[in-house]
Design a protein that fits this description.
380 residues, alpha/beta, TIM Barrel, eight-stranded parallel beta barrel, 9 strands, globular, binds ligand 9MR
């Protein structure tokens, strides 16, 4: 470990101690997991450095604050199954062992997605699209091998990720083009077959938007009517300071709850930077050119924006807590601001502030605000 890493790890420990002292004085819980222990588990997406113990500062925060983990990238198809018949389980095994060591609720992300899936999955040796049966068999083998390996150890899988367009129609992914609409049902069936106890989630972004929400509600209704074992819907929660409104978030959770599925907030982060596009989206293929106007806080976040972010986080956790009968997990998509994908999407190299811990691992105002909401929920 370098001197710098040691110093920052030391600072994180000191910060944790200060939070404990301050909270003890105010008789507030000191961790997110404690603050929400009567409501839902609170998770973080963790990266390979954290899984393999190379980010001690990050690990100290994860272990102190969270009781659930999601793998930010290591279980995606291109990482775990990069070539036909070749699986790479070294880091995923460490991921699951990490969660077990700390008694966490362990999430698997994700089995069937249009992104981060290698091109060979859809092609034959000549480079043409394979037929439906071949692709179904590849999907089955993948799910059986990956879910089967962690049967009884990964408690919840994101089975199908981002199958919908913004207008609520089904995305014309290679899965859809080759297999047809029932690729979604098949993926859930295969996952259930591989681990009948696991929770199985349909996961997507912007489900707060009316058209996409309608499409998702119709999809879940169809799946449930056909007896497909979908147990929860993941609202990713890549949100902004301004929207969607808390009322919309509230309605969205209620709408899905009515279908008899649990709701998880699966990838929460709140962007404070100027939107680079008109649309509220988390489409990974979107790329926007660098522009200083789009990166106004390169030298630090003004206190007024910290406060706005804290209020926004508190309002949203208020809604999640209100729905604690159906919301079973809230997962932040990253640990500190330095880790967040938001620094590089949709514009590369911005300085983003979407999470509860800052670049040096210190808790932000938003952290205190979220703890306070949890503490109030607990005593209600
Ligand atoms: O956070 C992930 C980032 O490190 C990857 O580069 C990116 C590539 O696709 O995926 C990010 O995570 C995505 C998640 O898997 C699915 N929903 C949207 C997330 C943010 O793009």
């Amino acid at each position: 470990m370098s001197t710098k890493t040691r110093t920052t790890a030391g600072l994180a420990v000191l910060a944790a101690l200060l939070i404990t002292l301050a909270a003890a004085a105010a008789q507030e819980p000191t961790s997110l997991k404690e603050a929400y222990k009567n409501a839902f588990v609170v998770g973080a997406a963790i990266n390979a450095l954290q899984i393999t113990g190379q980010d001690r500062r990050g690990d100290a925060i994860i272990e102190a604050q969270f009781n659930s983990i999601s793998p930010e990238n290591v279980l995606k198809w291109e990482n775990v199954h990069p070539a036909p018949g070749t699986y790479s389980f070294e880091v995923p095994d460490q991921y699951v062992a990490y969660g077990e060591k700390h008694h966490m609720f362990i999430v698997g992300h994700c089995l069937v997605w249009h992104s981060q899936v290698p091109a060979w999955v859809f092609r034959d040796e000549k480079g043409s699209f394979v037929d439906r049966e071949t692709l179904l068999k590849r999907m089955h083998d993948h799910i059986q091998t990956v879910v089967g390996r962690y049967k009884g150890r990964i408690q919840s899988w994101d089975v199908v990720n981002e199958a919908l367009n913004e207008d609520g129609t089904l995305r014309q992914s290679s899965w859809m083009k080759i297999i047809g609409e029932d690729y979604i049902a098949k993926a859930f069936q295969y996952a259930h077959e591989a681990d009948p106890q696991a929770q199985l989630t349909y996961n997507d972004y912007s489900l707060e938007n009316e058209a996409k929400r309608k499409g998702a509600l119709a999809l879940i209704t169809r799946l449930k009517a056909a007896g497909i074992p979908v147990t929860s819907v993941g609202l990713q929660g890549h949100l902004g300071l301004q929207g969607p409104s808390v009322e919309t978030e509230d309605d969205t959770i209620s709408d899905f709850a009515k279908l008899g599925v649990k709701v998880v907030i699966s990838e929460l982060d709140i962007d404070v930077l100027p939107p680079a596009t008109q649309q509220q989206t988390a489409d990974v293929s979107l790329k926007v050119e660098q522009d200083a106007k789009l990166n106004p806080y390169a030298n630090g976040l003004p206190q007024s924006v910290q406060q706005e972010l804290a209020k926004r986080y508190a309002d949203l956790f208020g809604v999640f807590s209100k729905h604690r009968d159906v919301v079973t997990r809230v997962t932040l998509w990253g640990v500190t601001d330095a880790d967040s994908w938001r620094n590089n999407w949709p514009v590369k190299g911005r300085t983003s502030y979407p999470l509860l811990f800052d670049r040096s691992g210190q808790p932000k105002l938003a952290f205190q605000a979220v703890i306070r909401v949890g503490a109030n929920t607990k005593t209600e």
